Amino acid sequence: MTIIEPVESQTKYTGTRVRRTEDPRLLAGRGQYIDDVTVPKMIEAAVLRSPLAHARITNIDVSRARAHPGVFDVLTGQDLATVAGQQPVIWFPIPEQRIAKTHALAVDQVRWVGQAVAAVVAVDRYVAEDALELIDIDYEPLPVVADLDAALAPDAPKLYDDWPDNVSGSLTYTAGDPDAAFASADLVVSASFRHGRAFGCPLEPRGCIVNWDTFAGSLDVWLSTQSPNLARDLLAEVFGIPVHKIRVRTPNLGGGFGNKFDFYGEEVIAAVLSRRTGRPVKLIEDRAESFVATSHSRDQRLDFEMALRSDGTILGLRGVSYGVLGGAFGTVGSGPPWASVLTCMGPYKIPNMDVTVKAVMTNRSPYGSYRGWGVPKGNIVHERLIELAARKLGMDRTEIRRKNFPAPEEFPFFTGVAFTYDSGRYADCLDLATSKIDELGWRERQARARAEGRSVGIGYSFHVEPSAYGPSRILNLVGLAHSGFDEVTVRMDSIGKVTIYSGQINMGQGTHTIYAQLAADTLGIPMDDVVVITGDTDSCPYTGYGTGGSRAAPLGGAAILRAGERLRAKILRIAAELLEASPEDLQIQDGQISVKGTTGRSVSTRDVGDAAYRRLLNRLPEGETPTLEEVDVFDPPNMATSYGCTALLVEVDRETGTVSLLDCLQAHDCGTVINPMLVDGQLAGGLAQALGGALLEELVYDEEGQLKTASFMDYLLPTAMEIPPFHFYHQETPAPDIPGGIKGVGEAGPIAGVSLVGSAIDDALSDLGVAVTRFPCTPPRLLELIREAQSRKEGSA
Amino acid sequence: MSDKLTVSMTINGHTYTADCEPRLTLADFIRHGCGLTGTHLGCEQGVCGACTIIVDGRTVRACLVLAVQADGSTITTVEGLARGDELNPLQEAFWANHGLQCGFCTPGMLMSATEFLKANPEPTAEEVRECLSGNLCRCTGYDSIVKSVLDAAQKLRA
Amino acid sequence: MKPPPVKYARAGDVQEAIALLTEHGSDAKVLAGGQSLIPLMNFRLARPSILIDINRVRELDYVREDNGTLAIGAMTRQRDVETSSVAAASVPLLPEVLRHVGHITNRNRGTVGGSLAHADPAAELPALVTGLGGELVVQGPNGVRTIPAEDFFMSTFTTALEPDEVLIGVRLPRLPGGTGVAVEELARRHGDFAIVAAMAAVHLAPDRSVDLVRLAVSGVDSVPVRLHAAEDALTGGRPSAEAIEAAAATVADAIHPADDVHAPASYRRDMAQLLVKRVAKAALERSETKS
């Protein structure tokens, strides 16, 4: 185990429910989201999208649109391709994989409904949309590959003529001797799990404003992104502009959830339109577009089987994860379905494995990042299979889990596939959850309901959340064309106040608050004295990857602690000069520096700032550099793996197949908890998304590749009426490889929550032996399962 | 082209007058015509509730009203809630209870809750959930918003 | 999602609205609460040449009872009906059903007439008016006429309203005191259009036999459906589980559900039958307690 030196800090703020520094202006309506930003001389664009899932473009006539009053320019794929490269891909986890790339506007062929084919820029969005209706395009329809089965059929039409089939690639990981394990097993349970298409669906759609100054050779970009540094690098790649000529600024984000991690064609389209018109161009995705143009995710089939001994010991796991990709690669390629395979063993010791990811192209929207990033489907595999096994073996669902956990002393624990979990007290966490189920009286509620003939069930999900993505070289090794470190600058100014500059993004998770908490504690100053700046590549440092992979708290936090520690030492050295004392004897409290254990003279950080910036004579120690600034780059030696045990109380209406969520709790361990209120917020919000995905949300395609759920009337986000109350309980096992001991927490809910619903439904219907394997579990689908089980039961009776 | 019409309305105590096309939605008028960008657009189809404002005493979806229809109206948007530079008790309660994360749905939540609390000073959690069911939030999981509204109700009663 | 260009005229009264409709013909569209029309325009699925705004036609904003009939003006906001003590006393099913129509903010703006004229077969209000044997009052250049609900709703989004006519109100027979009412809605989420909605009103005679039954369903046909056969099966006898079963057994023949992304037709058919049982039972229980 790598030992990182502990950082000295007080904990006045860390661990407390500090109110967020971000909130007052957001509550007052003073936030500034992308569509609130206005740049002088700005004009507005809109995109025309393909109505067909697969077709050749035989002709585009933009003359009527171009002539429309108020229109500045009309752009086609041919035009765009003369100045822009193809959309970049950064993840290549499968060796020798075929990579399907495309331009931001289709050049000659469309491969999904909603693919951008032309764009208009006009005086305002109303006129731009008017002009879209005047663009005439002739399509020659091609056979559609609407779903996974169609894509894998022996005589399937091909999306890419120069490929042998529709499979981009596949990769198998093996551990131990899986065949022998399955041959010797007492029990093998298997299932084909399906998760429908879904997406992060931030309430604010995506958008950008791009100003391409061809005379300065610069690109000035406002972008609703979680990854401004990545966007800047990729814009440079696409256009061949030097990185230092590109500035990316990020306003308030109205949610990101991974969807705003990815790099989209719209920022490229807006840039080209700006270059051609000499005007800043705003391009806002509207809600209707969001359903086809923002990255889709989750769409997977997972055919898996688990081998066990009769005592419940897991011997082996094998199976295939089919990633149902779209018509071209998104920024992260086949990353998420691959991550499902990496995490399909979850928190369990499984010595023998044979697990495969297979990435398959279909005529659907491109696949991309969504909070959880493949791990929710890994969780479905291990949590659903272990419960099926418990049922067959007649074991308690918690006992079989406990039996297969690695013990705390077995960490760092290599899973057998790729990840090494840093630390964990899994059994304690499970006990914490079950004790709270008792405390909350769920078992009595269940018993009472059952006595009344109602079907109430308790579900469990134990999850692991690999967070703090780094380390950079490991990420490179497994196929990421990007890094995983984080850089921060901590600067105290001439009056002793502190500004933190970070490359991470604040998208609602409260990064500014927790960074200020950590900095204030490390430096010994009031939180009010700290300001956090993010979202501007001109002033903020570089972070590898972006704000995704639950990185912001552990990596940014560690870098702040390390930089803060060094800055604190310098502050003390300067204060020592002012106090004529030794730095070792000094302490800082609330911004006042004094000799420990005395009530004598003190100086403030204001005095130190003055000595470091303005009146140096006789005050700044000889040999000490002026200014008070420290930069830290933290590249973690390992990831930090959070985990938790979630439980859910549901009621199933056996006559309708509807599921009501009654109550939900989660026992969780993300190492050091910086702000329990914010951690709970992350857990609750993530769970709500998973519950939506488990019951309501699905991007449904028909056999022609048409999306049937392209509005908020049909793509169903859960409301306050569907989501239950939440209860959260924390245990803190510090991350051994991260200064400060912080683990990421943003993806816990999405990972845990889908299998959780299946478990709870199964329990509510335990007398019938229903096993939920397909999500979302809609009322018609569940009713069908119930009726099948009922007729099975009657048949055997 | 449709001819422009002159509209005039009072928003947060200030009168705004402008010529606008009949098709201009009230939401776009408020955001771009009046510069009050606290009213957000999350769907433009009347489902998400982010653009909820109070027109003549009642909440409406600003994306489903045309600016010309609001001629002569008195409107409150989220910018009209704070008292000077002090948050009002409802806003304070959202702050204290972590009732917001990204803040995009928040203006709509605040407006819906403002109308609701006026008519229901002692609501139950279930009533708050029903009231807020027309406002989508993708960040919080709602529980903290429900707590915020209940907390505000208690403070307003005191 | 910006609406296409459109002209706008504000009608001060019904006569003016009719005159504008007559002048502009079938390209004109009456704008009531806008909760359905404006989204359709934002999606550019509706593109009227002119909107005739009747939101300031004050004469169409009323809820009153006369001679055993509850009369509601077309421009009465749904929320005002939901909270009206007159409506609740006369037709207690109304507030119960309205709670399922969208959300409070939609009902603040959405009107009774707008919902009826839009004629979404999954909507709740058309089913209520149909089920209770209500009448739609419409006015055109040639005067006022009254259309029974079952004749008014012709198909999905299609009514018997002529292009130059305006829906001005709806009349519902008052339910006798002691009537038990119930509504059940199977929707994916609270406030959504129903996969299936069922509603019932039942009254018992002094001898405790059923002397009035009204049953309706929405979401299972191109129009809202009043379940006459089911009503007949329940009427006259004493309330019993068998009678409810017999009533429910008639439902499948009375409806023509279609598949959609939320549920297959077979599911809707089964659920219509189930919900009819549930609302009939609940309404009977409530009527008994009131008698």
Automatic annotation (TrEMBL), chain A:
Q: Which UniProt keywords apply?
A: Molybdenum, Oxidoreductase
Looking at the keywords, is Oxidoreductase present? yes
Which SMART domains does the record cross-reference, listed alphabetically?
A: Ald_Xan_dh_C (SM01008)
Known cofactor(s): Mo-molybdopterin cytosine dinucleotide
Recorded hits in InterPro entries, A to Z, give:
Ald_Oxase/Xan_DH_a/b, Ald_Oxase/Xan_DH_a/b_sf, Ald_Oxase/xanthine_DH-like, AldOxase/xan_DH_MoCoBD1, AldOxase/xan_DH_MoCoBD2, AldOxase/xan_DH_Mopterin-bd_sf
Pfam families in the record: Ald_Xan_dh_C, MoCoBD_1, MoCoBD_2
Q: Residue ranges of the Aldehyde oxidase/xanthine dehydrogenase a/b hammerhead domain?
A: 28-143
Record bears the keyword Oxidoreductase: yes
Q: Which GO terms describe its molecular function?
A: iron ion binding; oxidoreductase activity
Protein name per its UniProtKB record:
Aldehyde dehydrogenase
Origin species, per record, is: Pseudonocardia asaccharolytica DSM 44247 = NBRC 16224
Automatic annotation (TrEMBL), chain B:
Recorded GO MF terms: 2 iron, 2 sulfur cluster binding; metal ion binding; oxidoreductase activity
What keywords is this UniProt entry annotated with? 2Fe-2S, Iron, Iron-sulfur, Metal-binding, Oxidoreductase
All copies of the 2Fe-2S ferredoxin-type domain together span: 5-81
Q: Which PROSITE patterns match?
A: 2FE2S_FER_1 (PS00197), 2FE2S_FER_2 (PS51085)
Give a yes or no for keyword Metal-binding in this entry: yes
Pathway involvement of the protein, from the record: Alkaloid degradation; nicotine degradation
Iron-sulfur listed as a keyword? yes
Q: Which CDD domains match?
A: fer2
Domain of life (superkingdom)? Bacteria
Q: What is this protein called?
A: (2Fe-2S)-binding protein
Give the organism, scientific name.
Pseudonocardia asaccharolytica DSM 44247 = NBRC 16224
Q: According to the entry, what is the taxonomic lineage of the organism?
A: Bacteria, Bacillati, Actinomycetota, Actinomycetes, Pseudonocardiales
From TrEMBL, chain C:
Q: Which UniProt keywords apply?
A: FAD, Flavoprotein, Oxidoreductase
Provide the leader sequence positions: none
SUPFAM superfamilies referenced in this protein's UniProt entry, alphabetically: CO dehydrogenase flavoprotein C-terminal domain-like, FAD-binding/transporter-associated domain-like
Looking at the record's lineage, which domain of life comes first? Bacteria
Q: Which Pfam families match?
A: CO_deh_flav_C, FAD_binding_5
Q: Which PROSITE patterns match?
A: FAD_PCMH
Q: Which InterPro entries does its entry note?
A: CO_DH_flav_C (IPR005107), CO_DH_flav_C_dom_sf (IPR036683), Diverse_Substr_Oxidored (IPR051312), FAD-bd_PCMH (IPR016166), FAD-bd_PCMH-like_sf (IPR036318), FAD-bd_PCMH_sub1 (IPR016167), FAD-bd_PCMH_sub2 (IPR016169), Mopterin_DH_FAD-bd (IPR002346)
Which positions, given as ranges, span the membrane? Answer: none
Q: Which residues form a coiled coil?
A: none
The residue ranges of the FAD-binding PCMH-type domain are: 1-177
Q: Name one GO molecular function term.
A: FAD binding
Full protein name:
Molybdopterin dehydrogenase
Which species is this record about?
Pseudonocardia asaccharolytica DSM 44247 = NBRC 16224
